[in-house]
Amino acid sequence: MKQKPEGTASEHYLQQATRGLWGRKRREVREELEAHLHERVLAHRIAGLSETNAVERALAELGSPREVSVGMARLYTLPTMMGSGAALAVVCASVVALLPSGAAQALPGTPYFPTAKCVEALDAGADGFLSGNCIQTNDALWLDQSALRQVLEPQGVTFSKTSAPGSNEGILGLTFPTSKLVYVPLGSPDAYVMDDEGNHPALPGYLSLWSLLRGASYQDGIELEVKGWDNPSVRLGDVSFQVGTEARPMAGAEFYASYLGEIYFADLWDGLGGNPYIVNPDRGVRHGPNFYKSALRETVITMPNAKPGVYGIAMRLDLDDVQLDQPALTSSLPWNGAVLFSVERADAQGQVSFALPNEPLRFVEAFTAESEPGTAVLVRLSGTDFDNGWYEVVVPKRVAMR
Amino acid sequence: MGKALLRDNFDLILLAILEDAPKYGLEIITEAKSRTDGYFDFKEGSLYPALHRLEKAGFVEAEFAPSTMGGPRRRYYQLTESGVKQLAEKREAWERFNGAVGALWGQNETETGRDCK
To answer: Which residues of B touch A76 (CB under 8 A)?
Structure first.
């Protein structure tokens, strides 16, 4: 994996240790670790070490940031753990009753779309979030663990279930044929799905596809490959499955937008702005504000190395600046920013067109890591051999706005 | 007593440390090391997922408070009622275990075991 320089050693540690967390939980864990580092460094300095040596020593005492991030991820990476830490978290997706499909390898996915009741409920003021947040792009793909079992057990994956000590929350352990073990949290009794009747069945038997991909990518020796657009297939080492079937299709735009959202909140976001979310304004996959067509321009991006595949853009916007056909939403947060997610397929020459608001594009590798503010991150989502394990940030070779 | 045993009793150790007062991470680590005579020598980062796990299980509750050193806020942990109960139960289980092992080795609990010849 390529290492990117990320500022100071402390900053690098804090980022890596909180990787996989997002939102308020990420900020809090970060602050807790920061306090630890701060005091340790101070103590070493008082003992006579230079600043650099004090930091080095403190970081060595802390140990590998992965131990922290993996440990925390087991507890918190349920996408429904929204910042408030409230016991109740609403997952607004339509849960498909999963039946084994005809094709042995196809795993019916959970098409992701909002339900009217859901939007109402959150409009009524759950947690201070906007109605746009009812449609969480990073909440989308829930897989029924028994359906997953049916498809993976014949390929040599064994399933075990455990739980955090003293807790009822399930953790699914998947042991891959190469003996690599991946832990994925199961939906907790506090996470539920709201259907159109306002019912909310709990999700104890469901796991997030993204948690699975992310967890597996932490294991050296499990190579991730994502292929296709509609009804894409996922390969983890030697095992694979397809998400979506003809009967219950998984639309490419939905799948990849959800994927991108998860990546954004896990790794790219710096905790500022970003509400509400806007997904693929040109594709009809809209949540939150809609754009006037005149506000959009075709933006052609050429990839370095001319790699085809599916790419996504996470773009920061100021809601006051862009042209929307709804009144700009007010936020309970002190900023009026939004993030736009758009996913498209690049052609064989590695060129991809996005319809984007006419705003300046400054591509960065992550919003967290820049001294100069960037406005967009471009990510490769399909294929294999990802620099970041489960995705790859790409800096465009050329950007042309028409 | 091997590392594995310590790991299994990580919870007990953390809960016991929190028995007398709310404490924050660095305090807990320092005490863990000193009270176990340096035996409890672990990478400090691993403390935090353990504390968070206890919090999620409801045995401790935590909140931020300003640092007296002018840096980022500290997060203080304290036992909940459930945690007090858990501590008592684990302690009892540990003592039963200890007694059983002691009986197996033909020593009684008051011997230090240091003068095995």
So the answer is: 52
Residue B48: which of A64, A68, A165 has the nearest Cβ? A68
CB A88 within 8 A of CB A190: yes
Q: Strand, helix or coil at A255?
A: helix
Q: Above 70 in pLDDT, residue A193?
A: no
A169 and B56 within 8 Å at the Cβ level: the answer is: yes
Other C-beta atoms lying within 10 Å of the C-beta of residue A154:
11
**A398-401 sheet: strands from edge to edge:** A351-357, A296-302, A398-401
Handedness of CA B105, B111, B115, B117 (dihedral sign): negative
Residue A125: pLDDT band (50, 70, 90) is very low
Residues A187-208 as b or e (16 or more Cβ within 10 Å = b)? bbeebbbbbeeeebeebebbbb
Share of chain A above pLDDT 90, in %: 19
C-alpha A181/C-alpha B75 separation (Å) is 32
Query: Does position A167 have pLDDT exceeding 70, yes or no?
Result: no
Are the beta carbons of B71 and A38 separated by less than 8 Å? yes
Of A28, A36, A72, the CB nearest to B49: A72
Query: Cα–chain-centroid distance for residue B70?
Result: 28
